[in-house]
Design a protein that fits this description.
Number of domains: 2
Helix content: 40-55%
CATH superfamily of the largest domain: Vaccinia Virus protein VP39
Distance between the termini: 45 Å
Structural class: alpha/beta
Number of strands: 7
Radius of gyration: 21 Å
Order of helices and strands: HEHEHHEHEHHHHHHHEHEHE
CATH topology of the largest domain: Rossmann fold
CATH architecture of the largest domain: 3-Layer(aba) Sandwich
CATH class of the largest domain: Alpha Beta
Number of helices: 14
Length: about 300
């Protein structure tokens, strides 16, 4: 499947690109959002991706928009440093499309999916620990905690026990073998979701420290946005969305006040620096999810920096 940008019209509408504006696509991927923004206005875009293959694919687009598109290989959680190194200290807009890209998911050699057998890798950046490293070295309890916390897998202890027993016979090195072990523990889900789905999600998030990356990126985004600048985030599971929701709610001064018994309630609350553009997360249309089933779980949230 080719990469299909999720909720693309909503992202472009909320980013409001304008002539001379400077924007960041923190998750370049297939370049779909970047291309749409470049077409929408004569603006400049900086694009970050930790995957060297994504940066290589973007060379054609960068050549087409020479001088307007600049590609940076790195992690979006380091955006403040990466942009400063290129002389960029303020942005008119910033967008993040969280999670794994279709290019990564559809390539068996990357090891993100259980739908085709491949090496148990899952590294977005091609460096660091692999999923196989986690599966074969974590203690049973650590592995169970990871599956529960990052995959919200209720059968995490049973799965961890089965993995530890299987790796004692031989190291688990492929997606196919890991999926078979998990399916041997869990019955098929009535919803049709593969029993291995949540465990694979947990391992991918753990390998790439995705939740930590999101938290770091949001904090830096708030420092980079100029007055009127907008942050648009598309997330695909509850763990990501929870972090984004909490961050935007607090930045817009919408967080619940402390209890009257809490000493913090005596201090005045600082004036909010942002306003929410989405009171509730936007969801893809039925038409979009029919064309692109991977969009089903998407949630879009956005906020705008207020004038100083």
């Amino acid at each position: 499947m080719n990469h299909i940008p999720v909720m693309l019209p909503d992202v472009v509408r909320l980013m409001t690109p304008h002539a001379g504006g400077v924007y960041l696509d923190g998750t370049f991927g297939g370049g779909g959002y970047t291309a749409a923004l470049l077409e929408a206005a004569p603006c400049t875009i900086w694009a970050i991706d930790r995957d060297p293959e994504a940066i290589a694919r973007g060379a054609t687009l960068a050549a087409r928009y020479s001088g307007r598109l600049h590609l940076i290989q790195g992690q979006f959680g380091d955006m403040l440093t990466l942009l400063a190194e290129n002389g960029v200290t303020a942005l008119d807009g910033l967008m993040l499309d969280l999670g794994v890209s279709s290019f990564q998911l559809d390539d068996p050699a990357r090891g993100f999916s259980f739908r085709a057998d491949g090496p148990l890798d899952m590294r977005m950046s091609r460096s660091g620990r692999t999923a196989a490293d986690l599966v074969n070295t974590l203690a049973e309890r650590e592995l169970a905690d990871l599956l529960f916390e990052l995959g919200e897998e209720r059968a995490s202890r049973r799965i961890a026990r089965a993995i530890v027993a299987a790796r004692a016979e031989a190291p688990i090195t492929t997606t196919g073998r890991l999926a078979a072990i998990i399916r041997g523990v869990l019955p098929p889900d009535r919803s049709g979701i593969d029993p291995a789905t949540r465990s694979f999600q947990a391992l991918r998030i753990g390998v790439n420290d995705e939740l930590g990356e999101v938290a770091r990126a949001l904090a830096q985004a708030s420092e980079l946005l100029a007055p009127g600048g907008r942050l648009v985030v598309v997330s695909f599971h509850s763990l990501e969305d929870r972090i984004v929701k909490r961050f935007m709610t607090e930045a817009a001064g919408r967080a619940p006040a402390p209890s009257r018994h809490d000493p913090r309630g005596l201090a005045g609350r600082p004036a909010p620096r942002f306003r929410l553009l989405t009171a509730r997360p936007l969801r893809p249309s039925t038409t979009e999810t029919t064309v692109n089933p991977r969009a089903r779980s998407a949630r879009l949230r956005a906020m705008e920096r207020l004038a100083a």
